[in-house]
Amino acid sequence: MADAPSPASPESAPAAAAPAAAPAPANGDGNRRIRTVLFIVLAVLAVIAVGYGLRWLVYGRYIQTTDDAYLKADSVTVSPRVNGYIDQIYVVDNQLVKSGDPLVRIDLRNYQALLNQQDAAVAARNADIQAAESQITQQQAAVEQARAQLVGAEANAKFARDESDRYKGLRDQGVETDERYAQALNERNQTAAAVLGAEANVKVVERQLDTVRSQINQSRAQLEGAKAASNTARLNLDDTIIRASVDGRVGDKTAQVGQFVQPGTRLMSVVPVQDVYLVANYKETQVRRMKVGQKATVKVDAIGDEAIPGVIDSFAPGTGAQFALLPPENATGNFIKIVQRVPVRIKLMPANPEVAARLLPGLSVSVEIDTRTGH
Q1: pTM attached to this predicted model
Q2: Domain ranges of the chain
Q3: What would the pLDDT profile of 277-333 be if each residue is shown by its tens digit?
Q4: 255, 172 in Cβ contact below 8 A?
Q5: Cα–Cα distance between 224 and 220 in angstroms, integer?
Q6: Which of 119, 232, 340, 346 lies at 20 to 30 Å from 81 by C-alpha?
Q7: 228-267 as b/e, with b when 16 or more CB fall inside 10 Å?
């Protein structure tokens, strides 16, 4: 027991210190590994940053994006041209229709009766014209007869004048008596009066012919008016059947059987879903490089990430503020510059028919335009 070394003896100090100094090299290796990892991460981040920078320099700065974009279609409001009660509806909500397909029919009985009345008026005017033409033929014959009578009266008058002159010479020679000369003179006067009467008769029958011609012109004018009224009545009858003016799908239908409608009453809309287009509202600072024909990539929220190609079709003739109900008036002292947006119309060209069928007006869209294209 006396020979055992004391724990505090100098001989035991190095043995105890040796285990405590061993971890020092391990800490140095760990720091080097951390620095190496950090360097690698920074290098990767630097490469990624350089890659993104190069991508923006080569590609990104030419791409203009916006999510202020919506699908639209030039829908047609269906309204009647005539008034009446709806007695039949041929379509239902969301039904596909073709141009010319019947949509609604208005009670046509009154319009059919009016058309029959106008057609009868046309027939009456045609009859008047035929009667007047017959009178013209008769009156022309009367004029010819009166003129022939005038020629005969003039011949008789000439003969009577010659006879009167001859008997006057014979009386002066003492061959004929005064009574015979007076008789010849009386015949001359009568034939002269007959000529005047024949001339007056010719004028009368010619005026009657002019009157008949005026009547036939009046009848023809009335016929044209009757035909115009008949055409109007026929158009009104045709308008009792309201037809689709474009291909599309029926929407917003409010028409009901028995409803009384007037011209301009909104009955439904026909939306040409096959001709849906995109209106993207770009900031005025984004449109400086945009041109018609540049390619666009469209993504519709309702469809997902499937990209739909398109091209710029046209630009609006003004910013959206200019077509607002109350356009802003900046000619005031309190002016704040606000970046305006320009509506850009984009024509969509979906390759998948199923996707095209799902493109509906009003859907939200995000769009990218590559300003490098279309030059």
Answers
A1: 0.65
A2: 61-74+271-325+335-370, 77-107+241-266, 109-238
A3: 999 999 998 998 899 999 999 999 888 888 999 999 999 998 887 777 777 777 666
A4: no
A5: 6
A6: 119
A7: ebbeebbebbebbebbbebbbbbbebebeeebebeeeeeb
173/223 Cα distance (integer angstroms) = 72
What is the pLDDT, as a whole number, of residue 12? 44
Contact 289, 62 (CB under 8 A): yes
In this structure, whether the domain defined by 77-107+241-266 belongs to CATH 2.40.50.100 is answered with yes
Sign of torsion over alpha carbons 134, 139, 142, 143: negative
Of residues 17 and 141, the one with the higher pLDDT is 141
Between these two residues, 178 and 354, which has the higher pLDDT value? 354
**Number of neighbours of residue 352 by Cβ within 10 angstroms:** 11
Phi, psi of 269, deg, nearest 5: -130, 145
Name the fold adopted by 109-238: Helix Hairpins (1.10.287)
**3, pLDDT greater than 60:** no
In this structure, CATH architecture of domain 61-74+271-325+335-370: Beta Barrel (2.40)
Average pLDDT, the chain: 84
Q: What confidence tier does 15 reach under pLDDT thresholds 50, 70, 90?
A: very low
